[in-house]
Amino acid sequence: MGSPLHEFKKQASFFLKEKIKTARLILTDVTPAELLTEEATNNGNLDTSIMGVISRAAFEVDDYWRIVEILHKRLSKFDRETWRASYNALVLLEHLLTHGPQRVAEEFASDKNVIEDMKNFQYFDDKGFNWGLSAKKLSERILRLIEDETFLKEEKARARKLTREIKGFGSFNQSSSIHGTFKDSFRPYGTCNSQYNADIGQQEIELLALNQAFTVEKGVHSELEKQVKDPKSWLKKSESSVNAIEEDHPFCNDHEHDATSSLLSN
C-alpha cells in the first residue's frame, strides 16, 4: 500500500494524462486509432486485442497512413537507450504484415536497414530476460515477410484461417479443456523465454489469442467512441481504475528510458 501522497500524485498524473488525451481528440484531427497506436507502441501495453483493433483500422485509408507514420518514426528512432518503442513497433508491424492490408510489406521495405540493425541489439533485463534475442527473432521474421512474397501470402492465409476458425469455434469458457491446457502457454511477444520454440500446440495458442481479440474488440471500439463523444465522463475515473493501470510489465522498469514524448506533435 502506497502512502497517501504517492496515491494522490498517481491520481493527479492519471487525471492530467486523460485530460490531454481528451483535448487532442477534440481539438486536433487525431483519430482514436492513431492515438491508440501511439500509446501502445510507447508504453508497452501491446496485447492481441489492441493489435487486432489497430490492424482492422489500418484497412481505412486515413487511419492506415496515420498508423504507418507512427511506426516509421518509432523504427527510425531506434537506439540502445530508448529501444522499447522501436521494439513495440516491431511487434505491431509483424501483426500488421500478417493481419493488415497487403500494402504493408511494400510500405516498410524502406525500413529494412533499421530492422536489420535491430538484429544486433543486446539487452538483458534485471530478471535475466534476453530482449536482444527476442528482437533478433522478430526482426528476422519481419524481414522474411517483407522480402519473401510467397512466405507472406502463406502467413496471411494462415492468419485468415485461424480467424475463420475462431469465429466458428465460438467463445471459450473457463472449463474448456483447450483453455486449461494452453492458458499457461500463451504469452505475448517478449514476455517469456520461449523465443518462438513452442511449435507444438502453436495453432491452439493462437486460437486462444484470437478468441480474446474478437471478444474485447467491440468494447475497445465502443470505449474510444465514448471518449470522443463524452469527454467529461472519460475524465471521471475512479481510484480503482487508476490502480488498475499500474502493471508489473517488463517495459515499465523505472531505471529504463521511456519514449514518452508524443510523435504526433513532431
Task: Summarize this structure as a short list of keywords or feature phrases.
single chain; 266 residues; mainly alpha; Serine Threonine Protein Phosphatase 5, Tetratricopeptide repeat; 13 helices; globular; disordered C terminus
In the predicted model, the low-confidence regions spanning at least 5 consecutive residues are 172-216, 231-258, 260-266
Radius of gyration, in angstroms, nearest whole number:
19 Å
Question: Which structural class should the secondary elements be placed in?
Answer: mainly alpha
Mean of pLDDT: 70
The total of helices stands at 13
CATH architecture, by name, is Alpha Horseshoe
Shape label: globular
The major beta sheet can be summarized as: none
CATH topology name: Serine Threonine Protein Phosphatase 5, Tetratricopeptide repeat
The arrangement of helices and strands along the chain is HHHHHHHHHHHHH
Number of domain modules: 1
Give the class-level CATH name: Mainly Alpha
End-to-end C-alpha gap? 39 Å
The number of distinct β-strands equals 0
Q: How helical, in percent, are the residues?
A: 55-70%
Beta content: under 5%
Protein name: ENTH domain-containing protein
InterPro entries: ENTH (IPR013809), ENTH_VHS (IPR008942)
Subcellular location: Cytoplasmic vesicle, Clathrin-coated vesicle; Golgi apparatus
Organism: Cephalotus follicularis
Descriptive account of the structure:
GO terms for molecular function: clathrin binding; phospholipid binding. It is found in: Cytoplasmic vesicle, Clathrin-coated vesicle; Golgi apparatus. Residues 246-259 have a biased composition (Basic and acidic residues). Residues 246-266 are annotated as: Disordered. One of its GO terms (cellular component) is plasma membrane. The protein is an all-alpha fold and 266 residues long. It has one domain (4-252): Serine Threonine Protein Phosphatase 5, Tetratricopeptide repeat, CATH 1.25.40.90. It has 13 helices and no strands. The protein is globular and about 50 Å long. The termini are far apart. The model is unreliable at 172-216, 231-258 and 260-266 (pLDDT under 50).
